[in-house]
Every structure is written in C-alpha cells, then in structure tokens.
C-alpha cells in the first residue's frame, strides 16, 4: 500500500481526455502545466460493422470492439493513463459524451463509480476550473439511455436493411428516425400531387387626396367591412372594376393603435439550424460543424484559443444569471439604458426539453463579432454573429409599432388600407427573426381624416391561384421533426445527411423532395412496418428513452417491448413481400465503353448518368448544366460545373483546354473592343457583380447594377 501511494505521488501529471485536439488546446490553456490534455478523436469502441453485435437471446447485451484504426491511439491513452496521477474524462456534456467517457473508462481501467468525470457547458476558464474541482462518477442512466438508442437503431438497421436489399436493391437502409423523416417528405409530395388549385382575384386601387397628391393603395374588401367578398372569376372582377372606376371615395373610419413585436428566444439546436438555413443558406450539417468549432475553441489574436459559444446540442432556453447580467451591461453600454428592460427576460423551454445545458449563447460579451472578425473563418464569423445577435436581441425590449387601418367607402363597396410605422425599434435594432415564407409588407398611409373625399387614380385587378403546400426545406423539416418529437437535437443533421446520401431524398434548390426510390421504400415500410414510420410511435419511443435517462425504466425493458412484436412483423414481411423492381430512367446518352444506353441514377450530390451494365461496365458521367451563352473562344456550348467546395465554374463543350473560367460567359459584347463580356462575381460574395471583357488586353469593366450594356 505504501509503495502504491509513493508511486501515485511521484506522478506529476493529471490526464484530461476530451474528444478533439481543438478542445484539448483550449482547455490546456486554462489548466496549466500540472495537466496533460489529450484527445480520444471521438468514439474508440462501438458495435462491430460486420455483424449485429447484440445478443438477442441474453438481455440484448451489446458486443463492443475497438474501432478499426484506433488501436495505436488506445495503446497511447493506456500508457498515458498508467503514468498519470489521475484521469479526468471531459467528453461532451450529453448522452453521447457520457457514453464515450464510459467506453474510455472501460478501456483505461478507470472505475466509472469514482470521481473521474467532468463536464462544462462552455469552455471558459471559470467553467473548466469549476468542473475540475467538482468531478463526479459517470452517470450510468445517461450511458444506458445512449446505449438503448444505439441498440434500438442497430436492431432496426441491421435486421430491416437486409430485407430491403433482398426485396428492392442492394445498398438500401432503413432506420428508426430516418424512415420517419423520409415519410414526412413523401407525404408532403403526395399532398402536393393531390392538390387542386383554385382561382381567386384581388383588386388594388390607387387613390390620392383632393389635390391629386399623396397617392396610396387600398385593397378591395367587399360590400361591407365585416364580410370579405370572394372574387373567383374574371367576369365578376371586371364588373366590380367598372363600378370602382366610376365611384366616389370617402374615408369612412380610421382606427389607430399600437402593437408590439417580441424578440425571439436565444437559440436551441433546432432553431439555430433553421435560422442558419434561412439567413445564411447553411445545411444543418454545415451549421453543426461550424458550431462545434466555435464551441471547442478558435485562435483569437491576442487571446489564444477561445471557446466562443456554449454547448451547441441543447433544447433548453435557460440562461445563467451571470450571462444575463453581462448581456444587459453590454446592451446598456452599446445602445443606451432605454434598451435595457427593467427585468431580464426569461423564456420557457418546451415540455420535454432536456434542461442540463443552457441555450446557445456567446461565452463572453468581450468577444464582439466585429472585433474578432479577422480571427474567424467566413462560416465561423457568420454563424457566431447570428448567435451573438440573437442572444443580445433576446434580452432587449419589445419593439413598438404604430398601426393604422382605414376603411374607404364607395356607393356600393368597402376598401381597406393598413399601415404601420416603427415607434420604438427595441430588439429590432439588432435582430429580426426570419421565416420560411415572405410576409406581405404593410404600406404607409398618408395623413387622412374621417369624412375626407379621395380621388380615383388607378386600378389593378390581379389573378391568383391557390398554391399547394410547400416542399420541406431543411429548416422546415427540422422544425417539424422537433415539434413531432422525432429524434433529438444531436440527430437532426445526421438524419438529413443519411436520407439524402441514400438517395431517398434529393434537393432542388433549398427544397427537399422524395426520389422514386424513397417513395417505393416508404410505401413498403407503410405496408409492412407501420410502427417504424409512424410519427406518434417514434415520438413515444423518444419519451421512453428519456425515462431511461431519468433512471425510471431499465433499458432492457424498453428494447424487449419493442423487439418482440418487431421480430414477428419482420418474419411475416419476409414471407409476404415479393421482389420489387425499381426501373431506372433511360437517357439518350450512349455509353462510349460498351454501347448501352445510359440511365439516370440518384446519388448523394444529385442525379448522374451510369451504365446499366454495372458491374461489368462501371462507366458514369455527370449531368452537365448548360447556359444560354456561347464559349468566348470557339462559340461552342458552355457547361456549368462545381468545384469540390461547391463553387461554380464554366467549361467549354470542347474541353477545358478551350475554356476554364470562374467568370460566367454572357451574350453581351464589349463596347470598346467588341470582345465577349463575362459576368465576374466577387470573391466569397463580398462586393458587387461586375461585367468585364474577356480580352485580357482590354481593360473594360463596369458594375452590373449600373450597366448600360444591351
């Protein structure tokens, strides 16, 4: 015993293990020389890929193995742990992080019941120091919840996917969350296909005062101010238009009021992904990768590695008292005391939110986005500024708008005009939440009085048709998944990546739509595995997993309740489902290697051409997009291609030796030399678009917005 104590005292270093080198670098700065901080590079153990890895007959016990390629890292960590006075496991503060720590403890012979686990919601000096002073045991309930989810997903994936391979085609997969997400997109497409449009009309009338000045637009409403008249056909509309042209107009009533606009709460994982998609055009995967960098630490000039935001996987709206105080002080200094509410604003999290972490916010108001912009990459700056502005705005006063509504009467009809002016901008001085749809903007109404006569100036009838439901975007799909309880904050981005990667869902601009394959697989799932694609069933399963985390239900019980009926359904489906043929669309392109007509395939990055003779012939081709402008060198067709980073460039049909350009050819001619004009976009989108001459000797250049070229 004395010898063991002596050996422990002789070991000078404490070992802290995190997931990534970036996180290790940031934490090392705060802990000093007594601590060695290293990275596990994520998971080190997992279920084997080559087999189910779960003992279905003996309590669903998982079989974990060291992930291939990580043997040397495990050996190094074992050596480091053996030569350390104590090991602290500092992986992320969620189920996944707890499970990684549990696996590390098993590999490194660390007793999980000892005070070996530390967590922090933000990587700041205060948070890290406090965590290291209050280590705890590994939370077995958290680990069990993660393990149950992993086993459940493995059972569904590894037992259902082979059925799809056999009955449809190889390479397919099914999943507990991915199949529901795909069904949401398929169902929306069915709604769109079943939609029957209806015609309707609107009538705008431009009026002026008695002097013919201050024109403003009023909208036709109906025969009285309470019931809106339906305009559904041109004949009715033209009759109303003729009457309005020959009518006199009087201001019947004016209603003035005040309305408030309220700031949005700080971000959760879901709302961050939604808003980054709308405002920045980021995919969910891109958002989470960038947020991870901001959380783990970025090198800031003069400050070293700094964790700029709190943990980014959360559905809580809670904010610490210290952060609220710091934010309110910042608002007062920056905008004035009039922009600091009497009391801090508190937001209520949704019913089933996990409140272990705060909402996503900046870790310190000292790191203003504009001040540290030079130290950040483009995506980091954009996302950090979005998080910063949303957080600051959430603690600012409501905006106040003056509103006015006027009813304008003719001999037979009522028309309405609405307008608003910002009386006090409040939080809108910093941030306004965006939405998937564009709100119709209210106009301004000039100063008018009740009883005042107005003069007719113009009338504009407009024909419209009702629109089908919009296809899901990543933002709206994530919002629906969150509202329906499908998955958790950490699963939204990987789910979308999976369903697009498998070719079940494709993109058209920002919209997501099901491929033929996605529709076929969803129909099969609906017919034989209704529970797997049922939204309510999936949401209930999430609640059961939460009960494991709360320590209220043994994880084996949840798996057993699911598996017994699932196994029976699987067996019945195996007998009932016949071979399903997925017909590829045949193109008019001949495979130059074997002479077959190539077919369209759906891949991770969209459609491409492939030879149907696979695996004998493995020829594939990209589908080239063409522009309506000739090659400036030979006059041939110009194709649009994308670089690995998704940036467009332009090539000639005759090859890149003829044309290879970042600038887009146009049909315009240079007014100075007669050469071809190219559209030159600014680097990284910063700056105006220009027209430039393709002739290197000619220096012609002008802003596209001010161009007079025809």
Tell me the distance between the termini: 91 Å
What fraction of residues sit in β-strands? Answer: 15-25%
| C-alpha geometry | globular
Structural class: alpha+beta
* Major beta sheet summary: 6 strands, antiparallel, barrel
Q: Percentage of helical residues?
A: 25-40%
Contiguous uncertain segments of 5+ residues: 1-10, 436-440
Using DSSP, what is the number of strands? 29
Number of helices: 17
Q: Over the alpha carbons, how many angstroms does the gyration radius reach?
A: 31 Å
Residue-averaged pLDDT: 90
Oligomer: single chain
Major sheet: arrangement of strands: 8-9-14-13-10-15
Pick out its properties.
six-stranded antiparallel beta barrel, 710 residues, alpha+beta, four-stranded antiparallel beta sheet
Description:
This protein is an alpha+beta fold. Helix content is 34%, strand content 23%. The strands form nine sheets. It has a six-stranded antiparallel β-barrel with strand order 8-9-14-13-10-15. The longest helix is centred in the first third of the chain and has 28 residues, at 140-167.
Question: Concise description?
Answer:
The protein is of the alpha+beta class and 710 residues long. Helix 6 packs antiparallel against helix 16 (535-549), helix 6 runs parallel beside helix 17 and helix 9 runs antiparallel to helix 13.
Topology, please?
Elements: H1 2-10, E1 14-18, H2 21-31, E2 35-39, E3 45-46, E4 54-55, E5 61-62, E6 65-66, H3 71-82, E7 86-89, H4 95-107, H5 125-133, H6 140-167, H7 178-194, E8 199-208, E9 216-222, H8 234-245, E10 249-261, H9 269-280, H10 284-296, E11 298-300, E12 304-306, H11 321-335, H12 378-394, E13 399-409, E14 414-424, E15 453-465, H13 474-484, H14 492-501, E16 505-508, E17 511-514, H15 516-528, H16 535-549, H17 555-576, E18 586-590, E19 597-603, E20 606-610, E21 620-622, E22 625-630, E23 637-642, E24 648-652, E25 655-661, E26 664-669, E27 676-680, E28 690-693, E29 701-703
Parallel strand pairs: 1-2, 1-7
Antiparallel strand pairs: 3-6, 4-5, 8-9, 8-15, 9-14, 10-13, 10-15, 11-12, 13-14, 16-17, 18-19, 19-20, 20-21, 22-23, 23-24, 24-25, 26-27, 27-28, 28-29
Helix pairs in contact: 4-6, 6-16, 6-17, 7-14, 7-15, 9-13, 10-12
